[in-house]
Each structure stands twice: as C-alpha cells, then as structure tokens.
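lol forgot to send this yesterday, sorry. struct tokens for the thing we talked abt
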C-alpha cells in the first residue's frame, strides 16, 4: 500500500512518541511505499530555534524516504493511497 505521511507524523516520531513508531520500522517501510511531500521538509526545518542537532536529525530521517519531484504541470493520483496523519 502507498502512504502519504504528514508533518505531524514526523514531529511525533522525532519527539519519541510511541504512537507512530510502528510507521517507521524497517519492516513497515520495506512493505509499503511511503511518499513525502517536499513541503514536509520545509515545514520541519522552518521551526524557530531549531538546533543544529535537531536539523541534522530531520535531514537524516528524510534522507531515507523518497521525495517525489513536483513540477507545475504534474498531477498526483490518490486512488489507492493511504493518508498517514497523526492527531
């Protein structure tokens, strides 16, 4: 199955919230296709007061997940996509 992760999933994961840990296990990531919007990177790295260590943790985490390249004329199909939103 395909999943589109939202920003909150990453915030909770980086804060060691166990409710989202299973979405980042090697087994889950190998079994499913994970999509990460380029906006996620912008949102995560734009927090005021972000330390260099926190910035590096975010970069490291995002480097392991695919980032689709978007263009002004590209269309996404969400037919069988599961949206992963942490609330």
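and heres what i got for the seq, position by position
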């Amino acid at each position: 199955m395909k999943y589109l992760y939202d920003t909150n999933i990453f915030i909770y994961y980086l804060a060691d919230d166990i409710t989202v840990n299973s979405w980042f296990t090697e087994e889950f990531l190998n079994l499913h296709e994970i999509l990460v919007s380029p906006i996620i990177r912008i949102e995560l790295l734009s927090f005021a007061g972000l330390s260099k260590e926190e910035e590096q943790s975010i970069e490291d985490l995002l480097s392991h997940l695919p980032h689709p390249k978007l263009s002004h004329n590209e269309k996404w199909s969400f037919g069988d996509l599961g949206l992963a939103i942490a609330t």
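DSSP finds four helices and three strands in the chain. anyway ping me if u want another try
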